Backbone:
């Protein structure tokens, strides 16, 4: 019967989720955010981040002229901000009070993947955003 099937459906779609256990209080999260904000980032690392992001907008200035027609739009300045915050958080969870280039490389793909628009030419050549980010990371000078 339809009403029985609806009851079976209702019982199996998770209407009655168990209450999750609290592992952190809101204050703990706010405190962690403050600690992450205080993770040290050297000026050379800041420049490295900006160079990576700029390479998505001006690839020819970084020896990546082959990407000029493959990128419709590059990452905005917000990508630099997000990458810095993500790198600080990454350093924090690695129990370091400072950011190293490897932290930038670890978060760059996740930060920039959705911030770069590829051209139809890139799609036709089966070039992905991941390919471009990897090439940028392999090309931009590491401090």
Residues:
């Amino acid at each position: 019967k339809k009403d029985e099937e609806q009851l079976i459906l209702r019982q199996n779609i998770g209407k009655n989720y168990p209450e999750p256990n609290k592992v952190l209080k809101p204050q703990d999260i706010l405190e962690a955010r403050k600690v992450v904000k205080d993770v040290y980032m050297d000026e050379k690392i800041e420049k490295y981040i900006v160079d990576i992001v700029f390479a998505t907008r001006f690839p020819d200035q970084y020896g990546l002229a082959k990407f000029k027609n493959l990128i419709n739009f590059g990452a905005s300045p917000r990508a630099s901000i997000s990458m810095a915050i993500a790198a600080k958080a990454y350093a924090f969870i690695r129990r370091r009070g400072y950011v190293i280039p490897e932290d930038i490389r670890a978060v760059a793909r996740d930060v920039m993947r959705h911030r770069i628009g590829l051209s139809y030419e890139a799609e036709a050549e089966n070039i992905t955003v991941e390919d471009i980010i990897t090439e940028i990371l392999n090309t931009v000078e590491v401090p």
